Amino acid sequence: MANWTSDELDTIGGAEELRIAPLHDDGTEHGPVTIWVVRHGDALYVRSAGGRRGHWFNAARERHEGRVLAGGLERNVRFVEQGDDATNEAIDAVYRDKYRGYGARYVDPIVGADARAATLSLVPRSA
């Protein structure tokens, strides 16, 4: 399994937004969607604000592969569902800290139960 480099973690994890483009089962790319991204330790995470009903989230679950672009860096990734409560609590804290300037109106949904149930880890993969 590939790992993120320190520079990639800093660049993507430090970006305000990330463009995510999951691949459908037939290999075509779902149109890119702009979302928030956080770093926790040596891992990168994204959540669907719409929870498990989110269109891009369901596209990501079809093939578990896609592409992300953040901070000028573009990478092919695998999407791994995250369900560990302790990790999700830590991810909540990172979302609250990183995006606190947006206010509770935007932050509360991304740390709510629906979005928490739609948490994906981004894992780098070869082209």
UniProtKB/TrEMBL annotation:
InterPro entries: UCP028498 (IPR016888). Pfam families: DUF2255 (PF10012). This is DUF2255 family protein.
